[in-house]
Design a protein that fits this description.
120 residues, mainly beta, Histone H3 K4-specific methyltransferase SET7/9 N-terminal domain, 8-stranded mixed β-sheet, 0% helix
Length: 120
C-alpha cells in the first residue's frame, strides 16, 4: 500500500473532495507528521477517504479513530481526553448517510455525562 505525507506536493485535494496523487485518484494512506511523530493516518480508495482514520495527540496518545466509506463516516467514532480516558463515542449509521444514531460522552475522570440524542 502506498503511504504519502500530507506535505507531499504531488498530493492534491480536488473540488469534488477527492484526493489525487501524481495526477491519479489516490488509493493508499496519507500521514500527517509533527516533526518525527505521526499525528494522523487517513486511508483513501479511488480518491475518496475510505477506511480507517486515526489521529494522535503530539505526545502519542490516541485522539480519535473511526471508519469512513466513500467520504462518509460510518459506525463508531471515538475521541479521547489527553489523559487517555474515552471522551466521546459518536455512532454513525452503517448505511453511509452520515446520520448520527447515538452519542455518548465521558468526563476526564471516566464518568458518563448526560446523554443527548441526535438526529441525522
Amino acid at each position: 500500500m502506498i503511504r504519502v505525507d500530507t506535505d507531499d506536493p504531488e498530493l492534491e485535494s480536488q473540488l469534488d473532495s477527492r484526493v489525487t496523487y501524481r495526477g491519479e485518484y489516490f488509493t493508499g494512506e496519507v500521514t500527517e507528521m509533527n516533526g518525527d511523530v505521526m499525528v494522523a493516518l487517513t486511508t483513501y480508495r479511488d480518491g475518496f477517504e475510505d477506511g480507517p482514520s486515526v489521529e494522535w495527540f503530539p505526545g502519542g496518545g490516541k485522539l480519535s479513530e473511526g471508519v469512513v466509506r466513500k467520504g462518509i463516516p460510518v459506525g463508531p467514532w471515538r475521541m479521547w481526553h489527553v489523559n487517555g480516558e474515552l471522551a466521546e463515542e459518536k455512532v454513525f449509521d452503517e448505511a453511509g448517510t452520515g446520520c448520527v444514531v447515538r452519542i455518548r460522552r465521558w468526563s476526564e475522570r471516566g464518568d458518563p455525562l448526560p446523554q443527548r440524542s441526535s438526529q441525522g
